[in-house]
Amino acid sequence: MKFARPDGLASSGEKMVTVDVYNLQREKVGAVDLRDEVFNVPIKRHVLHQVVVSQLAAKRAGSASTKTRSQVKASGRKLWRQKGTGRARVGSAASPTRRGGGVAFGPSPRQYTMKVPKKVRKAALRMALTDKVQNEKLIVIDDFNFSEIKTKAFVETMKRFDTRTALIVTEELDVNLDRSSRNVPWVKVMRREGINVYDLLRYDNVFVEQPSLKKIEEVLA
Predict the structure, then answer these.
(1) 64-82 in b/e burial notation, b at 16+ Cβ within 10 A?
(2) Angle, helices 45-59/118-134, rounded to nearest 10 degrees
(3) Using CA atoms, how far apart are residues 215 and 221, in angstroms rounded to an integer?
(4) How many angstroms from the chain centroid is the CA of residue 200?
(5) Is residue 12 over pLDDT 70?
(6) Burial class (CB in 10 A: 0-12, 13-18, 19+), 142
(7) Do 169 and 195 touch, CB atoms closer than 8 A?
(8) How far is CA 45 from CA 15, 50, 61, in A?
(9) What CATH number belongs to 2-44+117-220?
(10) pLDDT digits (tens, 9 = 90+) for 125-157
(11) pLDDT tens digits, residue range 84-119?
(12) Cα(164)–Cα(187) distance, rounded to whole angstroms?
C-alpha cells in the first residue's frame, strides 16, 4: 500500500491511497488508486459507535408481550364474600397478585429503532473503510467468480490470504461463491448495496471486487 499525490508533489495534508489488486491465487495483477474523500478520512469513534448501536437496535424483535389485568380472561364473579370468612378482601381473579392474573408493568411490543441521519451513516461508512485501509485489511480482488460449487476450494482460497474472518463484497450475486461459502461460519458474502458499518468492523478482512470498489466510491464520495 502506497500513499502519494497524483501530481508527484509531497504534502503533509493530501494523500492518495494506492492498493494492490490480487487474483484468487493471491498473485498481484495490478493496482488501484482510492479516493481520499472515501478511504482517507478522519476516524471518529463516537460516530461509529452511534451507527453500530443503531444497527443492532434495529435487529431487536421487540415482540416481548404480557397481558395486563384488563386483558386477562377471568370471571367477573366475586371470589368470596366480603366479610366473615377470615380471609382478605379480594376484588378480581385477574389481579396481578393472584395466580393466572395479569402482569403489572410487564413488557409490551415496541420498536427499538434509533434514527440516524443519512449523512452520519455515510460518514461512518467512510470511516470504517478508512480504518480497514489504514490497517491493511482491505483486499481488492479482480474477480471473485468460482468455476464450481466447492467449499473446500473456497476455504483454501481464503487461507492463501491468511484471514481468520472475512467479509466479501461483490457487485453481482455469484451462485457458486454464495453456495461454496454458505457453510463457512467465519465468512460472510454480500452484495455491494448491503455494505454496512457493523459488518465492516466485525470482520478482520474485507475483500472487495474491483468493480464494486468504483461503485462504492461513487456512492460515498
Answers:
(1) eeeeebeebeeeeeeeeee
(2) 110
(3) 10
(4) 7
(5) no
(6) middle
(7) yes
(8) 22, 9, 27
(9) 3.40.1370.10
(10) 999 999 999 999 999 999 988 889 999 999 999
(11) 999 988 888 999 999 999 999 999 999 999 999 999
(12) 9
What is the Cα–Cα distance from 16 to 37, expressed in whole angstroms?
10
Mean pLDDT of the 14-36 span: 89
Pairing of strands 138-141, 205-209: parallel
Q: Give residue limits of the domains in the chain.
A: 2-44+117-220, 61-111
Packed helices 118-134 and 210-220: angle between N→C axes, nearest 10 degrees: 140
With a pLDDT cut of 90, the percent of the chain lying above it is: 81
- HEC letters along 73-121: CCCCCCCCCCCCCCCCCCCCCCCCCCCCCCCCCCCCCCCCCCCCCHHHH
Residue 150: which of 178, 188, 171, 119 has the closest Cα? 178
User: Per residue, what are the HEC states of the chain?
Assistant: CEEECCCCCCCCCCCEEEEEEECCCCCEEEEEEECHHHHCCCCCHHHHHHHHHHHHHHHCCCCCCCCCCCCCCCCCCCCCCCCCCCCCCCCCCCCCCCCCCCCCCCCCCCCCCCCCCHHHHHHHHHHHHHHHHHCCCEEEECCCCCCCCCHHHHHHHHHHCCCCCEEEEECCCCHHHHHHCCCCCCEEEEEHHHCCHHHHHHCCEEEEEHHHHHHHHHHHC
Give the three cell numbers for residue 198.
457493523
